[in-house]
Write a structure and sequence with these properties.
about 10% strand; single chain; about 240 residues; five-stranded parallel beta sheet; two-stranded parallel sheet; alpha/beta
């Protein structure tokens, strides 16, 4: 399987990819849509994979995942982002008020139960573990990542690491990922001193995952809303160079 991720988000009530750059348009205007228009079905007529973002904010209900799978054709694949409790403990604490370190098998079971209908429909492309730049490499974080990948090893996994400490110890990071055949997510983004360094080359056979975050360096750290940093529209030339 070869996986190329389209950086898109999904509405919690249903997989509805949205363009990130302001002023862009993909779906027909609402006034021009036929009765019963389904954004996910329309999307799946043009692309064969989508990254689900809503699963980062809450584990999916099995019936929701089943609905997503039923509205897409054979061969369509979902990249499912892991719940924030697994990757962003501070964000989880702020959002829920619950202890993020109370993480165990019950959390794993809830998440895997939610995505089971997608996996059973043979439409689970990959699980995406997206870590923040604050996730620096040390003995504790390395051990945690090893546990996380082993816990979800029955699924194809891809890991987004943003801090430079992971690429500064390249051989060890690659060895850690290779233990479970996990893909190292390649990131196109503005680069700063702490940013991870990458070659844009696959590290595991058959699975290449790239996320295009945009190159809006001016608003990357200074912005009114967090999504402002992703307000960027790639030119055709920039996309060709990436391919």
């Amino acid at each position: 399987m070869s996986q190329w991720a389209i950086s898109a988000s999904a509405h919690p009530a249903g997989a509805i990819p949205r363009a990130r750059a302001r002023g862009t348009r993909f779906y027909p205007e609402k006034g021009a849509r036929p009765k019963g228009f389904d954004e996910l079905r329309f999307y799946a007529e043009h692309f064969d994979t989508v990254e689900i973002n809503s699963t980062f904010y809450r584990p999916p209900a099995p019936e929701t995942a089943r609905n997503w799978a039923s509205r897409t054709p054979p061969g369509f694949e979902f990249s499912v982002k892991l719940y924030q409790k697994f990757t962003h403990p501070e964000m989880f604490l702020k959002a829920t008020g619950a202890d993020p370190h109370d993480l165990g098998q019950a959390d794993v079971d809830e998440f895997t139960r939610g995505i089971a209908p997608i996996a059973e429909a043979a439409k689970l492309g990959v699980l995406l573990a997206q870590f923040p730049v604050s996730f620096r490499k040390d003995a504790n974080t390395r051990e945690y990542l090893s546990w996380l990948l082993a816990t979800f090893r029955e699924y194809p996994t891809a890991v987004e690491l943003r801090h430079r400490t992971w690429s500064d110890t390249l051989d060890d990071t690659l060895a850690l990922l290779s233990d479970t055949g996990s893909a190292w997510v390649q990131i196109d983004e503005p680069k700063f001193r702490s940013s991870i360094r990458q070659t844009f080359r696959p590290n595991t056979p058959g699975l290449f995952y790239m996320r295009l975050h945009g190159r809006n360096a001016a608003n990357w750290w200074s912005h009114d809303a967090s999504e402002d940093r992703y307000d960027y529209l790639y030119s055709v030339e920039e996309l060709k160079a990436g391919c």
